[in-house]
User: Fold these one by one.
Assistant:
Number 1:
Amino acid sequence: MKVTAIIPSELIAEAMELSNAEAITETLKIALHTYIRSQKIKELGNMILSEPLEFKYIAQELHEMNRK
């Protein structure tokens, strides 16, 4: 997809430096992938907070089961 956007050059320069990308397109792809990944992790964290994980066995029971 081709997009036209007005982005401050300082922001692009810093993103390019941090991402070690050589081109603006590559920089933007990295930035978008990173943003999407962080949002998905945040969503997962919120899901876990609202509905905590429940463990069926205690550590000792798992240890014994693994030894069999």
Number 2:
Amino acid sequence: MSLFLITYDRPAGKLLSVKEYTDEEAVQASADLREQESAKPAHIEVVMLHADSLDDLKRTHGRYFKTAREIAGL
């Protein structure tokens, strides 16, 4: 399993960054999450998710990886 730190611009519907961490890097991942959360503007979403792979994450949390048009099926 991996941890994924995702930064997402809600109003723009745009993925800003994805950083993958191994389970062994969990302490660093948590520190990076706290740092990004403390410095972000209100409209930026920062989340940490656990998944087997990036492909699995794209399937289960597609809104971070698709455009608004793709989500709407246009």
Number 3:
Amino acid sequence: MLGELVPILGILTSIIVPVSVFIWLYHDEKNKREAAVEIAKHLEDPLKIEELLTLFDERKKEPIDYRRGGVITLFVGVGIYLLGLVFLGSLFRGIGLLVGAIGVGVTIAGYLYPNTSEELTDAVERFEEK
């Protein structure tokens, strides 16, 4: 009986978790939108409404830091490699080496291509000096 129940619970869990996360995020965003509408009803200045909307905008304005992401990916690869070395075998060692190599490549790309405004400004100034 219990042996038949485990696969069913596994399938239900893989359905229930994403649906519940979707519902939770929907209600969280819905409350933010309702609060913004209520505040906007009492404001007459369109500039203040624009400022309010930018406060609720959670997207980052800065570019992605490839160096940070590369180092994280590199160490994830090292962890997978060590997991394969100690416990799971050669397949995971190969996957770990692949992920680690991707992390090294992303880190190198982060150093080759400047991404912050200060780095871009410095690169342009160095180019103009030549």
